[in-house]
Amino acid sequence: MGERVMEAKMAAAEEEPARENGSADRRAAKGGKPPQPFVLGSVVRIFMKNFLIYDSCEVYPGPNLNVVVGANGTGKSSIVCAICLGLAGKPSFIGRADKVGLFVKQGCTKGLVEIELFKPPGNIIITREIQVMNNTSSWWINRKPATLKTVEEHIAALNIQVDNLCHFLPQDRVGEFAKLSKIELLEATEKSIGSREMYQFHCKLKSFRERERELEHLCREKTNSLEKMKQMIERYKQDVDRYLEHKSHIDLIEMLERKRPWLEYENVRMQYMEVKQRRNKAKKTLEILKERQFPRAEKIREAEENLNGLDLKTRDNTAKIIEISQRIKQKQDALEMKEKKIEEIKQALRMKKDEEMDRQKKIHTTQEIIETWKNELNTMAVCENLQPQIDAINNELKKLQEERTNIDSDISDLRAEKRNQEREEKRIIDHLGKLNNIMKMKEENLKGRFLDTYSALTWLRKNKDKFKKKVYEPMMLEINPRNSRHAKYIENHISSDDMRAFVFESQEDMEVFLVEIRDHQKLRVNAVCAPAASCAESPPSRPIEELHQYGFFSYLRELFDAPRPVMSYLCYQYRVHEVPVGTEKTRDMIERVIRETKFRQIYTAEERYIIKVSSYTNRTLSTNTFLRAAQFLSGSVDTDERRQLESQQQDINNMLKSLDMRLTTLFERQKHLEHRDNELRQQKKDLLERGNRRRQLESKMALKYDSLRQLEQDAIDVEKESQLANLKIKEINKQKAELVTEFMYLTKDIIPLSILKGVLTLRRSKVIAEKARLESEYKPGIAQLKAAEQWFHELDDKKRVLYENCKELMKQAQQVCKLSPDQDFPRELQISFQALPNTLEEIDALLNEEKTRASCFTGLNASVVEEYNKQTQEIQQLTKYLEEKKNELNNFRQSISEVKERWLNLLKGMIEQINAKFSKFFSSMQCVGEVDLHVENEEEYDKYGIRIRVKFRSGTELHELTPYHQSGGEKSVSTMLYLMALQELNTCPFRIVDEINQGMDPVNERRVFQMVVETACKKKASQYFLITPKLLWNLTYSDKMTVLFVYSGPFMVESKKWNTKYFMKRRRRLSRMAEQCIATDM
């Protein structure tokens, strides 16, 4: 058995020059067997510098099976990472980190990976240098700079697929293989062992099918469109016939409407000629009548001049009469004024007499009142002493007032307290509403990310009565970070599967839940059971105060709240009470922290550190990753705060009820005090009135005496007032006598003027009678003259109107026929007009008839004929296009049939070979396994898939390999055997499987290892890497396999001093010595 021993000791930079000489010289220097033939593209050499835990390391794998063995943390998976990243793989393919810079050794600014691939005549050396600063890489091919695209082209040419789980299965993605869907597994298998032609056929079929669906859809659409267009053109044909018939009626209407204005013009012109003749005749008659009336008109004019002279004299005489009459009227008004003054003097005298009589009556009444009050005073007893009673009432009123003031103050205080409590209650309700909104947002986040979990949550809330103990909702809803900034630590520490897991206190309840949700409802959910003995209160190994010097401020458990069973599970499963959380200070002194604290996991401000101790060398190894941003717990709800708020709300409600009861009691007491206050005030009022009656009477009598003296002083002398009034009346009578004299003189002056007015009136009557006689003789002639003038004017106006109408109708007729004013009437219009009626009545009747017929053709448009022709042309084009697409569809179907037959032949042959190998491997383990082609619809080529079905126990049936049905060990065995089945058929240069045997039991692990050795060590088999931290005793080995031992530690022998033959020789000598010692003792 050829052995290759690899040493992972740090700081071996002196080996760098030797790397330039290639792998062949190095193999010769090692003194091993001559190199065996490699498959094209196999890994010949791996060199790492400043990569993960390595300072410098060079690995020489063998051409067949390479078993990489080493303790956890020594750097086995680092070799896998180097192969992936060195062959242009992305960090996501490995599943460890998302940035390539994180693979550089801590404390270094750059790292290097070099992969040498077998390709005669000269191997390909691919070098990748990784920069930590900006997460970039530089590439070289055979020591010459190259681009990533060039590297990818070289790798693809060798059929190396580091993104294919059938080729490359790193440690952190072992579980993903079982999660591959049947479709994904088929594609990965095709790429892995199928010929390039097979995968190309599959891709062609998918693209052909997609194009076939497009063509089928297009043909259906175009066929439907063609049918609709044919139906539409049939309707258009009827519309076209109706349109043509409608157009014939419209043309006749247009011709009738052209002739009608000419007939109207001719009729009006004939009327104009007739009216013109009658107007000339009326003009001659009017002139004869005017000559006859002239002498009579002269006499009437003379009579009118005489009448005007008389009217002038009458107006002058009338003006003088009016002037004198006005003066007489003024004298009459002055006499009336004097009479009114006399009457006013008499009225004033009467009023003074009445006033004196009223004064005498008031004096008598006042004397009687005073006498009555004197009698009452004389009879009134001496007033008793009421002051003690009034003082007693005042004292009681004062006490009542003080009590009322106290009650008002108490009511004011209670109302203020009630308002404060109500404001506090509103604040608490608003705060609780915000907390409830955060919970709703977390539920919406759960619904958007994990719909099955949300559906199970909805079912749980409706069926809580089906469980014996309390069931807790998904942890992402139950966990509440005390500070949202700390949510990222919790989410990076707890897996996403557990974040959406339901927590049970009873194993029986969990089984009931999973049977309903997984088996019946087919929902993918997670569930965990809290430990029987609670770990929620488990103390940390060291108090947090001792860790402050390292920058730690808390353990992870103290950063969030959760129900006790949930916290118990997290303490048991994730040791959250033993994981400290630090700051940037912790990051700056991380090496000291790791060395002195001995923690297995540490969080700094932005990173997570996992520390492992090698079981062989006791050396401490650490890996760090950047923290992901929080996705589930970004909105936190403080449950303590929520419970405290709810308790405060209940206390406030109780306080408000107590305040209302106290206010009601105070209001009743206040009402009682008001009633008593009113009673006391009424008693006091009655007592005061009894004491004030005598003083009131005395005061009233004094006022009456004053009033009596004033009345006696205001006496009026009636005799004297009568003498003064007579003197005034006598003076006014003298003024009246003078006015009467002036009135008589004016009356004498107006009499002659009145006589003259009568004479003028008689003379004017005679003139008016003469004029009336002349007018009566003139009137018959003037009536006849006016009638003649009116008739002439009417005929003249009618002639002018008809003339204007003729001009307008001529203009309209020319416009209708589109003729210019100086253009002759066209011959063709004359011919067309001859076939039409010659009267307006006939024209209108025929026009109405044609319009009625035309109106029956509704919904027509001039574009219907154009649309008909256009649709006919489109139908022809669409028919031709549809025929072309149908031919293209038939050709595609023919191509699909040919490619499908060739692809299925290759595919079925491949699957039969895989199934034969897979079944054989399972049979050798006394189990059953099958691989078949899964087809839902033969025409849906993107739905084809490979189905793996396995049976590990005789009493069960074959079950499809899924992430949920089989155990972890069963999934590992199935995955390994499937990859082995591919190994013998594989066309890929190498395959890597990292720590897949960890979940297997010893029996299955031994069987699988034997199969791997037998399969991978066959002639012309591809290169195979099996990464494992341990091997069972007495396994089957092959001379063709290579075992790479990975050691790491400060006491390692330098690689240049490593001598395998010497070590084996020494081991055999020690064994013989041990046997001799045993024999001697016996």
From TrEMBL:
GO terms for cellular component: nucleus; Smc5-Smc6 complex. Forms a heterodimer with smc6. Component of the SMC5-SMC6 complex which consists at least of smc5, smc6, nsmce2, nsmce1 and nsmce4a. Residues 219-292, 321-358, 383-431, 642-728, 868-902 form a coiled coil. InterPro entries: P-loop_NTPase, RecF/RecN/SMC_N. It is found in: Chromosome; Nucleus. Residues 16-28 have a biased composition (Basic and acidic residues). Residues 1-33 are annotated as: Disordered. GO terms for molecular function: ATP binding; single-stranded DNA binding. The gene is SMC5. One of its GO terms (biological process) is double-strand break repair via homologous recombination. This is Structural maintenance of chromosomes protein 5. Residues 43-1028 form the RecF/RecN/SMC N-terminal domain. It comes from the Eukaryota.
